[in-house]
Amino acid sequence: MHNRIDSKRIALTALFTAASLMASFIQIPIFPAAPWLMYDPSGIICLIAGMAFGPKLGCAVAVISWLPRILLDPIGAPMGILSTCALVIPSALAYRARRTRAASIAGMAMGAVLSIAIACAMNLVVTPLYTAVSVADVAAMIIPVLLPFNALKMAINVAAGQVFLAPCLRVVDAGAPQAAARSAR
To answer: 2-26+35-184 belongs to which CATH class?
Structure first.
């Protein structure tokens, strides 16, 4: 029976990873002041995976789903991994401690703030490597561009995470009572 649960967890983690990878290629300009900054919904999937399976598996989904992107974007992809894990870890830890709506909101809010801070700090390092923009120019973009873009991105991820959390957990947990009843026999 233990192997069945492990097999289900592995299969669901693989599905979350594949969905996150596919979603990462959806690029949506959400901030008109900086049309080069693109939003992708993969963070929502990593967030739900973390809430369902804990911070380690949530981060594993984030890291594995970003690995193929490293070939296309060797500088930006690690920033995406760090930013996504910064959202997932506090969210999953808070939700693991208390599986309530309030805990999920608090965890997601903490994760969003941490993710925004990491994204802005990483831009100071990463953007000058990508472009001819200096660190000083990037620092000048933090308040008018990077902070609002990342705040909007996190607002979307947290709102979608709240909307999809309960339905996704019902699907992930489907069959758990029957499996427990079968093992009790």
So the answer is: mainly alpha
Question: Could you tell me the CA-to-CA distances from 92 to 34, 53, 80, 169 in Å, in that order?
Answer: 31, 8, 18, 13
Is the alpha carbon torsion for 171, 176, 178, 182 positive or negative?
positive
- The token pair that represents 85 in the structure block: 């894990």
Question: If you average pLDDT over residues 72-79, what whole number do you get?
Answer: 86
103-119 pLDDT, tens digit per residue, is 999 999 999 999 999 99
Dist. CA 21–CA 50, nearest whole Å: 15
- pLDDT value of position 72: 84
The string of DSSP letters for the chain reads: -HHHHHHHHHHHHHHHHHHHHHHHT--EE--TT-TT-EE-THHHHHHHHHHHH-HHHHHHHHHHHHHHHHHH-TTHHHHHHHHHHHHHHHHHHHHHH--SHHHHHHHHHHHHHHHHHHHHHHHHHHHHHHSS--HHHHHHHIIIIIHHHHHHHHHHHHHHHHHHHHHHHHHHTTTHHHHHHHHH-
Q: At what angle do helices 42-53 and 101-130 cross, to 10 degrees?
A: 140
